[in-house]
Design goal:
This protein has six helices and 88 strands. Strands 83-84-85-1-88 form a five-stranded mixed β-sheet. Strands 14, 15, 16, 17 and 18 form a five-stranded antiparallel β-sheet that branches. Strands 2-3-4-5 form a four-stranded antiparallel β-sheet, with no helix packed on it. Strand 49 and strand 50 form a beta hairpin. Helix 2 packs across helix 5. The protein is globular and about 100 Å long.
Length: 1109
Amino acid sequence: MAYNYCVYAQKPTCVSHSCSGNFTSPSDVNLIMCKNQYIQVNKITEEGVSSVVEFEVPGRVETMSLFRPTGERTDVLFITTRDTFFTLGYVDGKIETLSNGSIEDSVGRRTETGSIAIIDPQCRAVALSLYEGLLKVIPFDNNKSQFKEAFNLRIEELNIIDIAFFESISSKKKPCKQPTFAILYQDNTGSRHLMSYEINLLEKELSEGTFKHLNIDRGSNILIPVSMPLGGMICIGESQITYFDEKYKKSVDSPSNTRLAIRCYGNVDPTRWLLGDQSGTLYLLRLQTNDNNEVTGLILQELGITSIASCISYLDNGFIFVGSYYGDSQVVRIEGNNETGNNLQPLHTYTNIGPIVDFCFVDSERQGQGQIVTCSGAFKDGSLRVIRNGIGIEELTSIGELTGLSRVWSLKVSLQSRGEKYLVMGFTKQTMVFAVEDESLGPIVIPGFDSDAMTVCCDTVIGDCYLQVTENSARLISSSTLELIDEWKPNNARISLAASNPTQLVVSLGEGKLVYLEISPNGFKQVQQTKLEYEVSCIDISAEENQTSSPICAVGMWTEISVRILKLPTFEHVTTQQLGGEILPRSILLATFENISYLLCGLGDGNLFSFKMDRNMGILTDKKRVSIGTKPVMLRPFLSKDNQLNVFAASDKPTVIYSRNQKLVYSNVNLGEVSDMCSFHHESFQDQLAIASENSVLIGQIDEIQKLHIKDIPLHAQPMKICHQESSQTYGVLITQFEEPETSAIYLLDEESFEKKSEIRLEPNEIGQSIVSCKFEDDYNDYYIVGTAITEPEEDEPSKGRLIVLQVQDGKLIIRAEKEVKGSVMALCPFNGKILASGTGRLNLFKWTENQDETKELVLECSCGGGVQILNIHSKGDFILISDMMKSIHLFVYKQDDTTVNGKIELICKDYQYSWLIASEMFDEHEFIASDNTYNLFTLQKNEDATTEEERKKLIRVGKYHLADQVNKIVHGFIGMRVGTELSLPGLHLDKDGTYPVKTLIFGTISGGIGVIAKLPKETFDYFNKVQIVMSNVAKGLANMPRDQYRAFRTERSKEQLESFLDGDFIESFLEFDVELQRKVVEELNREDAMVTLEELAKQIEDLGQLLH
């Protein structure tokens, strides 16, 4: 039995809808964007666009719009999902459901053009086009945000392209007495027409209006209502854009007589609209009028190129939001004409990794930190996206051949300045100082520095002086003259460790001896000394923000393996915290994140302890441990671009520690082993870090601090399939260009740089469909196998395809063999030294055979029927799983035929509940998972305990879950940190290898989401299932929809109960509940004998999230 936990590691990124208005307050200008089932509310400020709140709605959003209820000062958000409508308002700083209702009908066929929702300008009714031949009307209740009971109206036009409410259509320019809408539709001959209808809300009837225009542009697809005092309707066509009134029309032809492919629009004011087309061109459409408020013409102006727009929202003062489903969304500003002809200046970009068509998971370094490479976007915005659980570093420059390098520090221009002037490097027996000259780093000499000694501490201190502590002395140097001001030397001892802040210095002289000195602009003053019973292994006296001194000193101890807190200046003992084990603490740091003080301690074996700390009392609480590597940890603080404190943990797996929602988060840095690090914010190298390894220093800029690092590899074409080949250190990518004529190619890309090393163009009528890397039996070479579809001009469906065997040789793709096959090769799978390939409804097994002339070819060994169109093939041992477009999941087994040298493929069992599948994968030989086109995930297992052969031939659906997002690919892999971390999770315990026995799959979605499906032990599942149920009972969902109803498995006609899945996104949202709601959840859990505290439950949920993503 599968017990599954499903959660997004990266929430959807495709922006499908957007709108702007006054949502959070009458004076706020808000940008609201929709990413599948997630809504993000932003506020426009002088600094740019800032996020206000992000929340999940119960279902995939099909329509979204803002409206202003009569007499109100703020706008209301109207949203529809497949079966529900609801309105949302911003009340007392929270998102509240104002109204909701069902829009589902038991009969009727859904429209092919998708859901359309329009709101009467006078707030009398909402009209929905959902089903062919029906218009659903929802009357407003007293023109506010409440509604009366919805009703359906029959409509003769079946193939509706678009609908829009009029504000006015008469020549008198008066508002419509009844809610009146225009309908753009296509008849049986392919001609398109405009009609109008009035809705009688009292009688619940439709009557034909006076607005009627037949046989308009055959490519017409969008209606834009024109507000008062002009009234009327604009229709966007392929060759013309036309303004229509009752009696006349005015048109503007497409620029240069090219075909218009407008996909969306956004209002600027009553006479101007922004239009976005399929190529990413942004236009400004303007109505020309006379003094009588009559339209005299239209002007269409090309503004420039953006991402391909799916929605457009005009913000203010020339600022435009371009939401994109196929590329990155952007905020751009309209500029004056420039030499490039592009009048748009990009200001901000929202990364979009969707639609994810395909992806592969690669753990090439075998270090428990893999990466995902996705085929993302479409058309000109097509790209590869490289996604890693961690933070990237963009290298600016580096200094090499630094043998013996151990530590690095930066020295500021002045104590109050953020800018840094010098880079100090400590070696075993010397110290070097580097400075920037002519935008390059070079060594210099500071007279006051002792360059012939090893530096153990360096800092910028009070009086804008520089502090250098060597094993011989502490030196104070003027930042202006660079000469020595004062020097303090210990008596008959050497300094082994030191820690400083702007006014204080603590040094260790060995044998447990500590000396405390105070620093002034004139020199040092020794204040106190003490001798501890054990040797000191690390020290820190970091001051809090905006402070220049610290009342406490933190030290790590040898022998007893502990950390101690001592008072300054007296060295009075405050507390001791035992760490356990035998590994020394090697680095210690006092840090404050989001107004919470912490003590961090890194050990010599890569483990890191964290404690919450009361700086006044010196008390340590909430002890936690995480393993971030296997080598000693060096902790160094730095500020991010937004001036937030972060801590860099240098080790063999460097990690950045930061805080989100007052919780510590650990993100890998995508580098090899690092020994030390410091910030280096120079005017020539702004926001840079200096990162030291064994023999070099890298100067680079850290990416945005976030859990997932995303790198963009633009292709300007559509990547369709991707595969990694470890032996050649390359990726094979199938590319399609959708321009006429449609063409396809095979790219070979370098594993690290993603530079194109080789390319093979396919035939003009041939499209690449699948690619895998495999080894053949009795052949030590690795090959790429590509499956294609060949479509002849007279064919609707491809009747044949090719299998192409390619080898990487000297960085080039070489064709070793090719074979023509029947039908499109949609899927390939390596299988025990052979290759499985799909054909039209058949599963084929090919072997690699050597001919007499020593050439090799693919030879069909055996085949069997496999449905209508096989989309995916998977194998494990001798078992073969296929997913068919229409006939769901089939499980086969390969058996050797005793009578011939060939084998045969036999059907074992299949899913008799047919579904339109999209993706699938095998957990193992017994359990499987699939996704369908109604946004569900479901798991199946073999019915091995059945008593009859007939029952054993049936795959049983054991898990059902509605994701509300289309899953396009599922693979084995992981995103969470695969390191031994102490987690407090019921039923989960560390294996002997220091990891948790949790199998995970990764999925990618059409909306740009990356998710994780984890198989949990039954005890763990049962515990968090209780948490999920209690949370659902306590927390009222948006649209007043219970969580289990939202996650109910659904088809076109029915719904089935959520089963054997945990909603990880919902469970982890507990951490964002307000404290009162969290307490209610804990109280209800404890009524069911859970016996857990709020802190324990929060830690359990944190730990589960950290383990999985």
